[in-house]
Amino acid sequence: MKISSLINDLKTWNDIPVDEDNTCDTVKSGSVDKEVHKVAIAMFGTIEVIKQVVDWGADFLIVHEPLFYDHMDDIHDLAIVKEKQRIIYDSGLTIFRFHDYAHAMNPDMICAGEIKYACLEGVIKERKKFGVTTFILKEPLTAEELAEKLIRNLNLDQIRVSGSINKKGNSIACCFGSPGDLFELYEDHDFIIAGEVSEWRDAEMARDAAAIGLHKAILALGHETSERAGMMYMKDLCEDKYPGLEFKYFESGSVITKMYHR
Questions:
Q1: Overall pTM > 0.85
Q2: pLDDT string in tens for the chain (262-residue length)
Q3: What are the helix and strand counts (H, E) for the chain?
Q4: How many CB atoms lie within 10 A of CB 256?
Q5: CATH annotation of 109-224
């Protein structure tokens, strides 16, 4: 199978249409005319991940997030961008971003993977908007219990919780990654699980909601750590769909080098 054929097949996974003229899901480097045998999958195509992928002998790397620190991977005149371009070119890797198509699956592939690996029991309900899915827990939990479960099963270093921590609830707005405005999600959900949140807006709203007894909570996992299980799940799906190819997930890790505490 050629890389182009694999990419074309990946683009049939979505249930919601993706605008091909405006998607970020494009080939970022290399040739699609090569035969593919070993496929690497990662959240971020960091320089360290690229080196590991090359050492493994991959023909093709699929990432979820941008290579060059810009959503559409527009190239900026910066030293780090130029050096990373050189490293990627020298690697000979073909790199493709699988972002919009992943979130356009039903259920959202990233959300489904996070729920699977977090071992959350319940039901995936309707999509509230692109990248946001409602999940109903089978058994109600407090924010503290939910955070402990996520830390344990997703192997997280930390979760930042804003709002009420001791009131049980079962309705979760799953906003993995960087979801944007969360205002409309407060009314219908007990918890919001996100990667990145705005502290001055979303976290403050959760704090005031708790102060007046509304018992809302936001759990912020970090961007990479809130979506990586979705890409691990992609590896599982690929192994089932393409048994003649070899797949391996590469961990890009948290962007935080070290956390300092008082």
A1: yes
A2: 999 999 999 999 999 999 999 999 999 999 999 999 999 999 999 999 999 999 999 999 999 999 999 999 999 999 999 999 999 999 999 999 999 999 999 999 999 999 999 999 999 997 767 778 999 999 999 999 999 999 999 999 999 999 999 999 999 999 999 877 787 788 889 999 999 999 999 999 999 999 999 889 999 999 999 999 999 999 999 999 999 999 999 999 888 888 888 8
A3: 8, 11
A4: 11
A5: 3.40.1390.30
3-104: CATH number: 3.40.1390.30
- The letter for the amino acid at 144 is E
With b for 16 or more beta-carbon neighbours within 10 A and e for fewer, the 185-203 pattern comes to bbeebbbbbbbbbeeeebb
Annotated binding site for a divalent metal cation: 64, 100, 223, 227
User: How many other CB atoms sit within 10 Å of the CB of residue 111?
Assistant: 28
Q: Same CATH fold, 109-224 and 3-104?
A: yes
